[in-house]
Amino acid sequence: MRVTCLQENLHRALGTAGRAVASKSTLPILGNFLLNASGDNLVITATNLEMGIRYTIPAKVQEEGRVTLQARVLNDFVASLSSGEMELLHDQGPLTVLVKQGNTQAHVRGIDPEDFPPLTEHADEGTQFEVDASVLRESIEHVVFAAASDDSRPVLAGVQLEVKGNKLQLAAADGFRMSVRTVTLDQPLEADVSIIIPARAMGEMSRVLSDASEPARISITPNQTQLYLSLPDIVFVTRLIDGTFPDLKQIIPTTWNTRSIVLRDTVLDAARRAAIFARSANDVVKFEIQPPSESLEMGQVTITANAADTGDNRDDIDAQVEGEPTQIAFNGRYLTDVLSVMRSASVAFELQGANAAGVIKSEGSDDFVHVIMPMVIGAS
Amino acid sequence: MSADDGRTHWPVIGHEEAVRGLRDAVRSGRMSHAYLITGPEGIGRSTLAMALAQALNCEHVIDERPCGECDSCRRIDHGAHPDVTRVDLDWQADMIAAPRGDATRSRQRLSIETIRWLRQDIVTRPVMGRWKVQIVDDADLFSESAPDAFLKTLEEPPSFAIIILVATSVDSVSETVRSRCRHLQLGTVSTALIRETLESRGVPPAAAGAISRSAHGRIAWALRMANDPEALRARREKVEAALEHLTAPLGRVEISGVIASNHSRNREATHELLDLYTGLWRDALLHRAGLGDLVVFPEVGDRLAEYANNFGVGDLRRAVGATQRCMGDLDANMQARIALHAMVMQWPR
Ligand SMILES: [Zn+2]
Question: Are residues A201 and A242 in the same domain?
């Protein structure tokens, strides 16, 4: 291999692909980048078996070749160089690469690439569709936090992706809360899709999408073993989880007895303040909701928390309230989790009473639904 | 020599019946989703498990699996196949304990965290092969809560998954786990076959004879030792030294002090030594119980058996327990001098 490229390109590629390098592994090669120089490109690949990232940068290839190099060392050395041209070549046999720029050089040692896990080229068969990169990233952020972090049920450590016609739906649930986000695709799909993607990989996918402005192309292998996300320079691939995701229709309440609309920033601030006191009281944050009455011109949502040892707080928030007065308690962390990823100016809380799951929606839009289980309100 | 019928290449020496059964299962597609392979350490249990993984994912036509040559067979052999995972105590130390900053790196039990990892991994679909294969070595070292966590996976593994448990004895695996597995009991390999195998791999006849005799049927152990004569010598010395500590009641307290004073400099060495003590006491217990064919240190078997006869089964069981407890105490950073002293005081004399 002998190849010349720009340091700024290689640095960016290593930074992005590096997200898939295995931090721990009994297979040392997973701690390496695979570099493949061919045609007019240098392709950087990393994988931790659950997911993989392939980043392509333009390069002048004098001699084609493949090598794997220790990821951390290569990344840190390249990061220390200046922008502009740099060169990679073999001068000590096929497993060591001389990396040089001007008067600076290093030999980086590698491992034979034959054991590097294959990141199969995605075939043109299977399901494919395009979705705006920033919309996809925002949608992932809307749901991924609600996935289970323990393994109570393996499918809950994943995010369900469904496509029916032109509706793409992402959903995640951990048994206490559930997030569902719907996106309308430009083109309807002929065949329905339903897959489960590991939540960790989904989080990395949203980071990969963060700089992208172009549409992202999603491909799912015909036997539904892997999902590919393709951007002009990047391919992101993840394994898929086998199993049956909970039936969302059974989880999302369809009716309410009390509906209140509040400004999202205001209720988020109040929830954050309540969380300070709720910390030492099992994260219990209480909502008390009053519709307008003779003594109350506007509806009101009162948010409180109290802990025997640290104190208590209270926020009274103006709200549009329909239906009956009610109270309910939620986990304060769950509240701030969901309110801080939402984007709409106002949010609606739809409640059926103290002991039933509550629904949080973006006001004026049906594309996001969050369901959150109530906590038991203590005797106090 | 092997149960190969000339078309397959099972890299297994001996164990003809087990290989024949597995080969027929692979060919007919009548696989069980869970296997339990038992037998003494070093007789080739993991090799058989890896060979089964190769046969399942081999790229050759079905009658010729495993071929031992294709990319899939090669990767499994190198431990580099994305769909085949082999888990043991070393794996646990690297993958689970170390990243959590768990300095204790417990080498005594397969933890609940390891089981959780396996449960989450088994549900992701295979990406390269047809089958997702998990091999759990040291399955007799499941911690108490682990089998329960594992049962659901064993009960309903995904259609593409095969789990292979490897254990020393069927009695060391809980009945609930065992009943969900197809059981393959492996015996030892004949000394003649081990010798023949070593010689066919270029080991000089004299060395092949010596190793095969002290192998006591443990083919994998013999191959390991043949590849590394230095390891063979070093191991013999360590086992001899540990046996001396065990069988010399008067020097024990003094020795425990020496170990304790070296402990902070070399924790790994303490661990290795305590591992040997545990193994030797366990062997003593096996000799005493008339199960001498299951021992791990047959090379000192005669002396250990004779020594074990001085004590009751309860004494020996207590010694195993005290030694294991000491390892746990050291992992939990108890003062080494106190932990080691407590251990030797509970050894029978
Ligand atoms: Zn093969």
Answer: yes
